């Protein structure tokens, strides 16, 4: 049987001088001006934001595939996380700071808020909504929820994991369920704990989903399911309810360990992608059927994300490059 060759990137963004640790698409033209292109839908990405290990934050134009602006956002300790919500950009550095940025005249970025979280680990912050952000803290087993409308560094709520005896928190996300929104925390010992954002403190449920460290998580909206990547060979999909235990998890094992990031295509929840330490980006159907292995990068892949319209997949790597892929567009899946 002749296999189809693996697709190549549609474009590659070069400009970072160190490993690219994070990226996210920009859909607000206050950050990247919209080009006069009637064919672009409202869900089409205007640009992309990336952060690298030398502390540089860059904004890219998706139409021209060129850099719009660059700023030394954090110290040489590097940037761990980038995210956008509306016209604001969030960056998290290994200098213990989370910063918010907006675009000013001329396309430059202006820092308008800084939050000292005291965490110098590799755990990435998570934006819950326009006002709430989950962050790691100086206490390795504790996560804090901050409301950006409240001045100062006092968290609105804290979530404690010491009683789980599962090591430090390693991954953060949030999961909408019928009763509200849950904070999800993945731990070093393979436990995923759910905390009620209205109550905090102790977990509602905390199943052990893997024998390996949970490195990343991504919700599948509408199904109360979390996609998890680990330091081992496991990709895990677990449906989380008050009765969840480890037996409800679905596993897929790769030949190589280490999954840095996982991204669900929220446009239709039909496919997801993972970033591997083995330099590969893997694309799966929601049933865990492997669809493609993307082999462009020459070093570990640290981040993946789909655009809101589902047409683009971006990957960022230790090789200093960002690859843009057009694989399995929504109309063909």
TrEMBL record:
Q: What is this protein called?
A: Guanine nucleotide-binding protein subunit beta-like protein
The cross-references to Pfam families, in alphabetical order and at most eight, read: WD40
Alphabetically ordered keywords of this record: Repeat, WD repeat
- Please name the taxonomic classification of the source: Eukaryota, Sar, Stramenopiles, Oomycota, Saprolegniomycetes
* Organism, scientific name: Aphanomyces invadans
The residue intervals holding the WD repeats read 48-70, 294-325
Q: Does the keyword Translocase apply?
A: no
- Note the InterPro entries from the entry: WD40/YVTN_repeat-like_dom_sf, WD40_PAC1, WD40_repeat_CS, WD40_repeat_dom_sf, WD40_rpt
């Amino acid at each position: 049987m002749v296999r189809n060759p693996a697709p190549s990137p549609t474009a590659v963004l070069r400009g970072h001088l160190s490993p690219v640790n994070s990226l996210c698409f920009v859909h607000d033209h206050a950050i990247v001006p919209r080009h006069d292109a009637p064919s672009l839908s409202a869900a089409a990405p205007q640009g992309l934001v990336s952060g690298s290990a030398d502390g540089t934050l860059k904004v890219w134009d998706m139409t021209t595939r060129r850099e719009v602006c660059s700023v030394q956002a954090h110290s040489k300790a590097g940037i761990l996380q980038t995210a956008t919500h509306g016209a604001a950009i969030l960056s998290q550095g290994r200098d213990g700071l989370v910063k918010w940025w907006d675009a000013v005249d001329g396309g430059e970025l202006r820092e308008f808020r800084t939050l000292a979280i005291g965490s110098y680990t590799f755990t990435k912050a998570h934006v819950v909504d326009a006002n709430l952000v989950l962050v790691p803290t100086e206490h390795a087993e504790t996560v804090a929820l901050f409301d950006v409308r409240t001045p100062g560094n006092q968290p609105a709520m804290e979530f404690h994991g010491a009683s789980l005896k599962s090591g430090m928190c390693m991954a953060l996300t949030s999961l909408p369920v019928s009763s509200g929104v849950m904070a999800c925390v993945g731990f070093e010992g393979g436990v995923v704990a759910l905390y009620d954002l209205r109550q905090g403190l102790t977990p509602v449920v905390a199943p052990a989903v893997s024998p390996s460290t949970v490195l990343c998580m991504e919700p599948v909206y509408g199904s109360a399911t979390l996609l998890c990547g680990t330091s081992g060979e496991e990709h895990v999909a677990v449906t989380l309810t008050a009765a969840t235990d480890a037996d409800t998890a679905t596993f897929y094992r790769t030949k190589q360990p280490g999954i840095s990031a996982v991204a669900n295509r929220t446009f239709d929840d039909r496919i997801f992608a993972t970033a591997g330490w083995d330099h590969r980006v893997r694309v799966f159907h929601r049933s865990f059927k492997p669809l493609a292995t993307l082999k462009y990068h020459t070093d570990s892949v640290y981040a993946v994300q789909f655009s809101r319209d589902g047409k683009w997949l971006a990957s960022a790597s230790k090789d200093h490059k960002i690859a843009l892929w057009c694989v399995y567009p929504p109309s063909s899946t």
